[in-house]
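hiii, so i know i said id send this last week but things got crazy w the move. better late than never?? heres the sequnce for the chain we talked about at the cafe, plus the structure i predicted for it. fair warning i was half asleep when i ran it
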Amino acid sequence: MNKSELVEHIADQSGLSKAGATRAISVILNSITKSLKKGEPVSIAGFGTFAVRKRTPRMGRNPRTGEPVQITSAKVPIFKSASALKNNLN
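okay and structure toks below
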């Protein structure tokens, strides 16, 4: 499912217009992004937790030349699913 399919599904299920569903999704995603930028995890009961993890710098290799390359540290988003979500899928 992509964003436009999600918008359509939410509009059908909630009675919102597609524009309203698009705004709702944008607000949710922006709120999650802002919290993650602050370093705060976002927990959604029954679904999972979004958080930020710092990846340490390391040496890698250029796949074309095989030459060593320094990979810098980076902040990366992670998602850990809730057990309720896992159980619902199985």
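btw DSSP finds three helices and five strands in the chain. thought thatd interest u
miss u guys!!
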